[in-house]
């Protein structure tokens, strides 16, 4: 995902409790390593589609949050994303858990990718839906990341439009050029957290509505 979390050192996570179908690791610049756990998305019974859930973001934590709870499998499973947008997301799901990055006061990071092909193609494929949640040491540090991200997208040709997720201001970025910038993306800050959601648009779908619904889901389920 571009912008908020483009350079993310990550920690190894391949715990048995995930019940994962597979776990792949790869080296990254600077000696960090990326671990992506991939599993098939749950099937929806033939002839039925999820019903959109009335998702509203929970209140920002009033205490200092020191970590993000869980991972994509436990906090943001594909079924909950499907319920939020009212449609199936076929394909595989993978996630990356990021480590602290002191120079921007980031305490941790979670990246969830849904609707990926199977096999080696998943490594370079654009996910149908991607959620990035970062936790910072302070609300001020989190807020600083939003204009950085907006500028980054605008430098790649994207336009911005305001929206809201619950009562929170958010920015939708569309029309960019280049890998990661050409997918509609919503960014916002809530307390110590930033959320970035990207969704590949589908014919006839209101992508802004889907972006808002998934961002609200992410906020609700990553509060510590």
Automatic annotation (TrEMBL):
Residues 24-73 are annotated as: Disordered. The keyword Signal applies. Keywords: Signal. Residues 33-57 have a biased composition (Low complexity). Residues 1-26 form the signal peptide. This is DUF3558 domain-containing protein.
């Amino acid at each position: 995902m571009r912008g908020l979390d483009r350079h993310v050192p990550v920690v190894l996570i391949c715990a048995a409790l995930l019940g994962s179908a597979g776990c792949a690791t790869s080296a990254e610049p600077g000696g960090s390593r990326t671990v992506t756990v991939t599993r098939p998305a749950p099937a929806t019974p033939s002839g039925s589609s999820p019903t959109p859930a009335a998702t509203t973001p929970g209140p920002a934590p009033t205490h200092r949050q020191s970590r993000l709870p869980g991972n994509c499998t436990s906090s943001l499973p594909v079924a909950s994303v499907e319920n939020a947008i009212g449609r199936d997301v076929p394909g595989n799901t993978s996630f990356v858990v990021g480590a602290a990055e002191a120079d921007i006061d980031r305490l941790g990071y979670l990246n969830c990718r849904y609707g990926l092909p199977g096999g080696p193609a998943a490594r370079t494929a654009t996910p149908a839906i991607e959620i990035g949640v970062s936790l910072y040491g302070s609300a001020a540090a989190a807020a600083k990341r939003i204009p950085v991200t907006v500028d980054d997208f605008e430098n790649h040709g994207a336009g911005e439009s305001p929206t809201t997720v619950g009562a929170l201001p958010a920015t939708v970025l569309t029309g960019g050029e280049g890998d990661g910038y050409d997918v509609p993306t919503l960014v916002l800050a809530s307390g110590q957290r930033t959320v970035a959601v990207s969704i590949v648009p589908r014919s006839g779908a209101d992508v802004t509505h889907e972006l808002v619904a998934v961002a609200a889901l992410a906020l609700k389920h990553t509060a510590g």
